[in-house]
Amino acid sequence: MTSNNGGCIVSRSNEAKAIGLRMGEPVFKCRRLIELHRVRVLPANMALYGDMSDRMMKLLSQWSSDYEVYSIDECFLSLSEQEKDYHSLGKEIQATIQQQLGLPVGVGFGRSKTLAKCANALSKRVGVMNIHDYDEDKVLKTIDISSIWGVGKAFSFRLRAKGIRTAYDVKYASLFVLKSICHRYGVLLKHELEGIPVIALSTEKSGNKSIVRSRSFGRDISNKDEIKREVAVNIEKATRKLRRQKQKVKSLQVFLLENRYKIKMYKSSIDIELPVYSSATPYVLGFVLKAVDQIYKESKHYVKSGIILSDLKGEEFIPRQLLDQKDEEKQEKLDRLMKVCDEVQSKWGTRLWCGSSYCSQESVC
Q1: What is the structure's pLDDT at 299?
Q2: d(Cα 147, Cα 144) in Å, to the nearest integer?
Q3: Burial class of 286 by CB neighbour count within 10 A (0 to 12, 13 to 18, 19+)
Q4: Helix/strand/coil (H, E, C) string of the chain?
């Protein structure tokens, strides 16, 4: 799987890993290897992945109200200790996600987050794994130090120098040695591998302090309308994320970037201050498109556009009394409109554009 513009490898199957394709490697560098082994190369669809991730997390929440979304494809669940048959529960989770989303998943169980991560890594071979159903020490001896959650290259190198090569070695290592190498995390890691849960679930979702959305075109573009369409995609994604986090924006920046390999690279940006806090796509887009008119130069060939949202506030913290009556009523109407659009998109998977004639291949007008 390649990045949006097909430049770098961002995901690989086990077979692709086996022939030597590396994460983040430019496609042109491994073109010969790809052709030799007839590797199928597909472009990434980040919008689809994000939507599937949201739906999977909602499904997982039916087994526990205490859960942490760790990444786009990983989630921690806190389960009751009264649950006995974890293997059957894991099979149930697998079957439900496969049936409703068509996604194959691995399920790992452990008394701590680190042990659960170890079990999950091993579940890729067997589907479901409860690490406590086996001799834990024998299992930990098979896990290399570099594969442990939170242990990077620097820590791995220093731990190996002290003879600590596996998760088993970490579990029975001296606290003094671990603390001298990995500082506080070394102590936490030892306790976690002992089955003592010291790394808590992060169930609280805090909103972003800023949101950045950029888009590479994959080719040089000089047509203003095409550039506006690409910028509109950035705005739609950014404002939708704002609404998911129940935030609104007051300040933002729009930028256009020319090819960096040109003799004189051109980059232009403009700051925008909205009259009021808003998360409504058509309202924000109106100001952004006017800004594009100001920074666009017909003689330039652009390869990338982007927006940076700053001065974000939660909806409950916006000082409504500072808004005049007309602006307040307008924002309330837009908020209701956006709520309906988001509900339709969530149910039917259709991307709606309100108040804009700019559409991409990803959108429906």
Answers
A1: 81
A2: 5
A3: middle
A4: CECCCCCEECCCCHHHHHCCCCCCCEHHHHHHHHHHCCCCCCECCHHHHHHHHHHHHHHHCCCCCCEEEEECCEEEECCCCCCCCHHHHHHHHHHHHHHHHCCCCCEEECCCHHHHHHHHHHHHHHCEEEHHHCCHHHHHHCCEHHHCCCCCHHHHHHHHHCCCCEHHHHHCCCHHHHHHHHCHHHHHHHHHHCCCCCCCCCCCCCCCCCEEEEEEEEEEECCHHHHHHHHHHHHHHHHHHHHHCCEEEEEEEEEEEECCCCCCCCEEEEEEEEEEEECCHHHHHHHHHHHHHHHCCCCCCEEEEEEEEEEEEEHHHCCHHHCCHHHHHHHHHHHHHHHHHHHHHHHHCCCECCCCCCCCCCCEC
Q: What does pTM read for this prediction?
A: 0.66
The residue type found at 89 is L
* CATH class for the region spanning 211-348: alpha beta
Q: Which amino acid is at 363?
A: S
Q: How far is CA 320 from the centre of its chain?
A: 32
From-to residues of CATH 3.30.1490.100 in the chain: 211-348
Query: Could you read off the pLDDT of 315-344 as tens digits, one per residue?
Result: 777 766 554 667 777 888 888 888 888 888
Which residues are within 8 A (CB) of 309 and not within 5 positions of it... i.e. 6 or more apart? 210, 211, 212, 238, 242, 249, 251, 252
pLDDT confidence of residue 325:
66
- Under CATH, which architecture does the 48-193 domain have? 2-Layer Sandwich (3.30)
Q: Judging by DSSP bridges, how do beta strands 128-130 and 107-109 pair with one another?
A: parallel
